Amino acid sequence: MSNIVTKLLVSLIFIVPGILCPASMSAQVNAEQVLFIGQNVLSMEDYMLSIQYFNQAIKAKPYLSDPYFFRALAKLHLEDFKGAEEDCTLAIERNKFKTESYKVRGFARQNMGKDSLAILDYDAGLRHNPEDKYFLFYKAIAQSELKKNDDAEQTFGKLLRIYPQFEDGYTARGRMRIMRGDTVGALADLDKAISISKNLTNAYLLRAHINAEKKNWQKAQDDMDMAIRLEPQEVDLYINRAYIRYNLDDYFGAMSDYNYTLELQPYNSMALFNRALLRYEVKDLNRAAEDFKAVLKYEPENFHALYNLGLVDMERKHHKEALQSLEKITRKYPRFYPAYYAKAEVLRDMGNMRGAMQMAHAGDELVARYVDNPERNPLDRPAIAAGKTHTGDNKTVFNEDEDELEVMNRFNQLVTVADRGAEASLTYNEKVKGRVQDRNLQVEQEPEYVLSFISDGETLRNVSNYFKELDDFNQHKYISDRVYLEPRQNGNTDEVLLNNLFRRAEYYEDLKNDGHASAADLLGLGVVRSDLKNYPAALAALDSALVRNPDFVVAIMARAAVRQASLSVLPAQDDSGMAAELHRNSEAHQLQLVLADYDKALQLNPRLMFAWFNKGNLFSSSEDYTSAIQSYSEALKIDPNFGPAYYNRGLAYLHMGNKRLAFSDLSKAGELGVIPSYNLLKRMK
């Protein structure tokens, strides 16, 4: 949808470099220019920084609709749904014909549970564009959440008639049909969605959910395997697959899934608990006890784990510890009869026959009174067996309507996380700009190295960021700020840090405007503008620094990285296609300028491996994988322990179909601390 897509300026030369900090007078701010930069930053997913730019535009021209809309979009991505709703309302007050504002506000309201209000917004949008895909899609989901199933069916029907290849529509309708109990219709929708796209995690999860309910365990496992292949870092999926494998009597497979979950998330109480139960079942009692104790360390009130620990200690003949655990249970739940029988067994093993008989009698009395009058003498139902329980941040899935006398059986069941597919998390499907990404899986190369005032601190990676000329620059304190060489960060920046960066920008801007700026000061201005992702302003400052000192290696590296970042910012195509066409015509020229800067830096410092690495990324982004491999190899000649170069070279080998060399490089990268390597290797195998 062209209105929601960021419209960037066509050429860098059209943007004046000097953007003042938030403290500057609003009259001095070019609101349109700041808005464009904010949209640019928003497209890079640095939402906090983009909000700062939109704030400036609003302060300068509070009557404009777009700054409020784009600020709402940034807040939406930060899951500040209330703030997004309020900003969209302000945008609509200024321009009621901007339909995307209704879409974002409706989506924000939907995430706050205001489905009825969301539907009003979607209807408002549909009056302007009755065939808008996402207005129809979100409206149908909202209707299904309100249990207006007939209305939802009608909306889904219209959506899929207009867009018969819209896989998310079939998945969402399949979820609704599951909720209605129509598993036949749901399976038909999910099969259709998967036939359109093999990359739909939720569709596989929903289908696995249906097959598990029908005890079709092998089919359920096949779908879970596909979901894990798509989202291998999602720990809940391994827990669910382990449960399915357990029901297939594949204890080894279930155990391996729990072990891998705990590699990814060592404090996952559910995986610890389930692994403990499996170990208990195969009589690996000592390690089962260790896992139950770990669960209780993180969740002292988890009586499910406490009860099972008591049973394990009973079998290990750790009588004192077993009694302590069981006593805690009966103090909290004095009518939980299985604990009395367990205590009776422990006391009998200890030779205390009288105490054992008393405990057994207490349990018999509880059961007899319950059988005589269940309403008057109910048995205790510990929270863990009440139907839903919390283990960490996850919910177990129990649908317990059995007789109270089955409580003990429930206490020994494996638990699974709430099926994410069945709950189908709502995601905002519109993209801010024309950068197409796989929503479910994306393998990204390690980012290039840039000059920055922000240090990433200590990492696990065996990479020395030593850059001789930069070290000399910092040692001589040519400017008051320390400059770092860091991998480019595209995430959100801390608000306090942002305010500090804007103040620094104002300081260096004042030096430049007063005519007192040295080449070092202009480097500082370029670095801070780059940190604020105002690349045109950064480029102008670095150009000026290099006019004063053409062999300023630090500034050359900084300018090359800024130009490289600018290449990744693709303008959206406008109605005439002119913006994208102009960009394509200038891209080759910009690419040559970046390469010329890196080559100049390497001429002045042949040991500058980061220039080779960045060149490799540049070639890789242009799909020139042969040149990329050559560049990464040159970097590795300088430092054979440069993990990111192994990782990116491995990806380049993969693109060229050379799996043998890709495996070798990715393995070495993992050894050197590039964690995604292991995950990628696992998927490739």
Summary keywords:
685 residues, mainly alpha, two-stranded antiparallel sheet, two-stranded antiparallel ribbon, 33 helices, 4 strands, 65% helix, 2% strand, disordered N terminus
Model description:
- With 685 residues, this protein is mostly helical.
- Helices cover 65% and strands 2% of the residues.
- The chain is built from 33 helices and four strands.
- It has helices at 31-43, 47-60, 66-77, 81-94, 99-111, 115-128, 133-145, 149-162, 167-180, 183-196, 201-213, 217-230, 235-247, 251-264, 269-281, 285-298, 303-315, 319-332, 337-349, 353-372, 407-410, 420-423, 468-476, 495-513, 519-531, 535-548, 553-567, 578-604, 609-621, 625-638, 643-655, 659-671, 676-684, and strands at residues 390-391, 394-395, 449-452, 484-487.
- The protein has a two-stranded antiparallel ribbon. A two-stranded antiparallel sheet has the order 3-4.
- It is globular and about 95 Å long.
- The chain starts with 30 loop residues before the first helix and ends with a helix.
